[in-house]
Amino acid sequence: MKAIFLRILSLPETFLSCLIITLFALISQLDPSFLQWEVQRSLSSHIWELAIIAIPMTLIILTAGIDLSVGSIMSLSAITAGMLFQAGSSMPLACGAALLTGTIGGFLNGFFIARMRVHPLIITLATMATYRGIAEGISQAKPVSGFPAGFTRLGQDEWLNLPFAAWLFLIMFVSVFWVIHRRALGLHVYAIGNNDTASRFSGIHVDRILIGLYTFSGFASALAALLFVARRNTAKADIGMGIELGVITAVVIGGVSIFGGRGTLVGTCLGLLLIHETREFVSWHWNRDEFILIVLGLLLIVSVVFQKLLRHKQNSS
Amino acid sequence: MRDPDMPSLNIQNLSKSYGGTHALRNVSLKIHAGDIHALCGENGAGKSTLIKILSGVETPDQGLVQWNGSHLSLGKVHEMESKGIVAVHQEPVVFPDLNIVDNLYAGRELSSGMGTWLNTASMKQQTRDILDSLGEDLPLNQPVGEMALAQRQMVSIARALFNQCRILILDEPTASLTTRESDALFKTVISLKKQGVGILYVSHRLEEVFQLAEWISVLRDGILVSTQSSKDLSEDALIQQMVGRKVAYPSRQQPVNTDITKNKPVLELKALSRTPAYDDIHLKIHAGEILGMSGLVGAGRSEIARAIFGIDEFDTGEILFNGKKFQNHSIRKAIDLGIAMVPEDRQRQGLALPLSVETNLLLPSLNAFQGMTGLDRSQMRSISGQLISKLGIKTGSPDNPASALSGGNQQKIVLGKWIHQNPSLFILDEPTRGVDVGAKSEVHRMIIELAKQGSAVLLISSELPEILSLSDRILVIAKGHVSGELAREEANQETLLKLSLPEEAKQSP
After folding, report:
1. By CB neighbour count within 10 A (0-12 exposed, 13-18 middle, 19+ buried), where does A116 fall?
2. Domain B260-506 carries which CATH code?
3. Do B260-506 and B8-243 have the same topology in CATH?
4. Residues 263 to 322 of B: which have CB under 8 A from any A CB?
5. pLDDT tens column, B95-140
6. Which of A109, B79, B243, B360 maximizes the CB count within 10 A of its CB?
7. CA B472, CA B114: separation in Å to the nearest integer?
8. Least CB-CB distance to B375: which of A182, A201, A262?
9. Torsions phi, psi of A251, nearest 5?
10. How far is Cα B267 from Cα B475, in angstroms, rounded to an integer?
11. Strand pairing of B215-220 and B36-40?
12. Does A169 reside within a domain?
C-alpha cells in the first residue's frame, strides 16, 4: 500500500498537478480577475494549435526521436493553402492540398530517419530550414488574406463554449490516448524508445512505426497551420516560427524523457497547461516580455531537476 | 619483494536491500593483496550488489569497508578508484569510438611542450607495453567499439592495470571468451597476483575457479555461506553450497535418435556467403535436431545466425526454410515463418530492460492480443503468467521491470518470448553466457525439451562442454568457413578445438 502511494507520489504527473495547483493558488491571491472564464478563453485561442502538435511530438520523443521541423511544416502548409486560394482554387481544395503538403513533409522526415538511418535531430534541422525556405520562396514573403467567411469561422466559432480547435484537439487526444494505452502499437512505441535493436529483433516494424509517427506529425502541423490561418485570416511564411521550442518544452516539462521510452500524453497536457498559464499570467499581470522568458526557463529547470530527484529517490528506495 | 604484512580489503557486515528484498545480509569478507579470491553464487545471490558496492556505484545500508586498515567512504566511485579498487565488468565499459590508446589515457593524456601537444608516440609505446604484458596484440588505431567483446574486455583490464590497481574485481571475465582466450587471461591473472594485486574473481565456471583461486567464498540469497581454501573443497560440494541442493546436468546419454536426419530438413543453407564474414556455408538442420555450432569468437558464427534471422543481408547463396526459398527476408518474415532467435547480447538485443517482464515476454506477439476493444490485458496476464511459471522465471510480479531480474532470469525471458508461438527453428547464440549453474541447467533442459517437441535448434556456443553435451551434430566454423562436421560420438574437446583454430596457428603450436 505504502509502495503504491509512494509510486503515485513520485509520478511526474502528480508533481506537475501540484505545481499547477500552487500556480492557481498564487494567481488567486495576486490577481483573481485573471481566472475569469472570459479572460481564460480569450487568452487560450492559440494554445490549441500548440497542443495538436504536442500529441505527435510526445510519441516521437517517446521513441527517442525529435521533430524540429513542425513550425516550418506549418508555414509551408499555410502558404500552400494561401497561394492556391489566391490562384482561385476553392477553399476545401486549398485546405486538402495544405494537409497533403504537411503529410508529405512529415513522411519525408520519417523516410530519411527510418530508412537512411539519419539522426532525427539532423534531418529535421535540415528540413526545418528547407521547408521554411520553400515557403518564403513561393510566397515572396507576402501575406495572403481575405479568406472566405466559411473558412475563418473555423478559427472563431465555438461549440458548447469551446472553440472548434479545442474540439479537434480533444478528438485527437482521445483517439491517440486509446491507441497508445489500449493497442499493441502503444507498447511498441515504448519498446522502441527503450531499446530499438531489441524491438527490431522482436519483429516489431520499427521503420514503419517511425515513418508513421513523423508523417502524423507533419499532418498535425498542417492542421495547426490551417487553424492558425483561419483564426488570423492571414497566411504568411513566418507562421509557426519557433513553435517547436514551445512544444518540446511542454513535452519535456510534462515528464517525457528526451532519451525516449518514458512519459505519457497526460504529462504533456499538464506541461502544456503549466507553461500556458504561467506565460499568460506573467504577461497579464506584469506585461513584461523578458519576465516570461526568465520564468519559463526557470520553470523548465526546476521541473526537470525535481523530476530527476524524485525518480532517483524512487529507484533507490 | 612483497610487503611482510600484506594490505587487505576488509569487508565487514555489509547489508543492502532493494525494496523488500535483501540483496546482501551481513556479509563479511577479507581479500588480501596477492591472493586470488573467488566469489561464487547463483544469479541473484548478491554478487553483483557486492561488486557494485566495492566499485562505489551503490551505497550499502549497513556495514563498512576498510583498505589497509583505513575506512573507505562508500558510494563514491572516485574514492574506490583512487585506492586502486577497480572492477572489470562482464559487459566492459569503454569509449566505443576511441581507439585503445585513447581509451587507456582518457582523462590523463600525456603531453609535451608544456602541455600543448599530446605525446602520442609515448602513449602508443606505453600502451603497447601494457598489451605485451597481457600477451595481447591488438590494433592500436581501431575504434574499440568495432572490436569483439573479448578484445574489449582486454582493453578494460589494461585500463585497470594502468590505474595502478591493488584490488582487481573480475566479473565473469571468461563469459564471452573462447578457451584459448581464457587461457591467455588466466596467465594475466596469475602474473598480476605475483605483482601483489589482490583479485576478486567472480565466475560461474567452476573449473577455472578451482584452477586459479586460493580462496573460495560462496554467496547464497545474500548471505555468505562459507569462505574456504580451494584445496579443501570439491566441485560437487561447491555446487551444493551455491544452490543449497544437488544439480543434475543434462546427461550425455540421452537416447540418441538415429532417425533425426530422416526428418525433413527445417533449414538449409546453400553456399551462403558474405565477404568478409563467412564464405560458402552449407548446412542442414532437421526437425527435432540440435545442431551445435562451435568455433572461436569472431569466426563468423553470429553473422551466419543474423543472416538466417533476416537481420543482415548476405551476398550470394540461398536460405531454404522448410524446403522453400526464403526471399526478401526481414526479421518479421522470419518470425512469421517460425524462426526464433536468442541473440548474443541479451541486454542490447534481447530485452527492453526498463519495460515489464510481461511486456518483454509478449513483445513479438502483441498483435495477437489485440481485439476490437483494445489489448486483451487479462489474456496477456494469463499467458505471461503461464510462461513465468513454465520457465521458472523468478520475479515478484509480471509488472516488475526486466532490469530488476538476474542474468539467468533475463535470459529465460529472451527464450520465453518465442516459446508460446511454437517456432520450428530456434537460433540460440550463446544462450547461457553469464548465467549461473542452476539457471544454466534449466536453460539446457529447456533446449532439450524444444528439440523433443520437434523444433530444430541451431546452438552457437563457445563453451565446449555445452556444445558436446547438447548437440546431435556439431559444425565447426573457423575464419568464416566450415572447417569440420562431426557426429556427437566422434566429437570431443580436443577435436573441436583443433578444428576451430585457423590454419597458420595449427602449424606453429
Report:
1. exposed
2. 3.40.50.300
3. yes
4. 309, 311
5. 878 888 888 887 767 777 666 777 788 888 888 888 887 777 788 8
6. A109
7. 65
8. A182
9. -65, -45
10. 14
11. parallel
12. yes
Exposed/middle/buried for A25, CB within 10 Å: 0-12, 13-18, 19+? exposed
Nearest CA distance, A273 vs chain B (angstrom): 28
Report the distance separating Cα A300 and Cα B304, nearest Å: 49
Average pLDDT of chain B is 83
Res. B92 pLDDT band, cuts 50 70 90:
low
Q: What is the pTM of this model?
A: 0.76
Query: What whole-number distance in Å separates Cα of residue A181 and Cα of residue A273?
Result: 22
Residue A211's SS3 state is helix
Domain assignment present for A139: yes
Give yes or no for A188 touching B (CB within 8 A). yes
Structural domain span for residue A112: 43-240
Q: Is B121 on the interface with A (CB under 8 A)?
A: no
CA distance B237 to B225: 12
Query: How many domains does chain A contain in total?
Result: 1
Measured CA to CA, the distance from residue A66 to residue A122 in angstroms comes to 10
Confidence of residue B460 (pLDDT cuts 50, 70, 90): very high
Q: What top-level class would CATH report for the domain B8-243?
A: alpha beta
Instruction: Over range A36-44, report the average pLDDT.
Output: 85
Q: How far is B500 from chain A (nearest CA, A)?
A: 28
Cα gap B102→B123, rounded to integer Å: 9
On chain B, the residues whose CB falls within 8 A of the CB of A183 are 370, 374-375
Contacts of B331 in chain A (CB under 8 A): 200-201, 203
Distance CA B412, CA B393 (A): 7
* DSSP tag of A145: E
Render the burial of B276-293: b for 16+ CB within 10 Å, e for the rest: ebbbebebbbbbbbbbbb
CA distance B365 to A193: 18
pLDDT tens digits, A300-311: 888 888 877 877
Which of A201, A259, A314 best probes binding to B when mutated, by most B CB atoms within 10 angstroms? A201
